[in-house]
Design brief:
The structure is a single chain. This protein has helices spanning 12-21, 26-32, 37-43, 57-66. The chain contains four helices and no strands. By secondary structure, the protein is mainly α. It has one domain (4-66): Orthogonal Bundle (434 Repressor (Amino-terminal Domain)), CATH 1.10.260. Helix content is 44%, strand content 0%.
C-alpha cells in the first residue's frame, strides 16, 4: 500500500490544475478548505513572488481527499 508520504508539496500549477479539473472557482476552493480567498491567491502566486506562500501539506492532502483525488485514501460517507 502506498503511503501518504509519497505525496509532495503542491506547486501553484498543481493547485491550479486541481481547481480547474473540479470546475471550482478560487472562492469555492477556499470555502472547501476553510481558508480565505486571499490565502488561496497566495498559494497560487509564482514561487518567485514576494506574495507566494507554500500550501501546507495537511491542507493539500485535505483538498485531495475532499475532491476525491487522493492517490490512496477515500473519504467515507456516513
Amino acid at each position: 500500500m502506498q503511503s501518504h508520504l509519497d505525496l509532495n508539496l503542491p506547486s501553484p500549477d498543481d493547485i491550479k490544475t486541481l481547481i480547474k479539473q473540479r470546475g471550482l472557482t478560487r472562492a469555492e476552493f477556499a470555502d472547501l478548505l476553510h481558508a480565505s480567498k486571499r490565502t488561496v491567491d497566495k498559494w497560487l502566486q509564482p514561487v518567485t513572488s514576494d506574495d507566494y506562500r507554500q500550501m501546507p501539506f495537511a491542507v493539500w492532502e485535505l483538498a485531495l481527499l475532499k475532491l476525491d483525488n487522493h492517490p490512496v485514501y477515500k473519504l467515507a460517507i456516513k
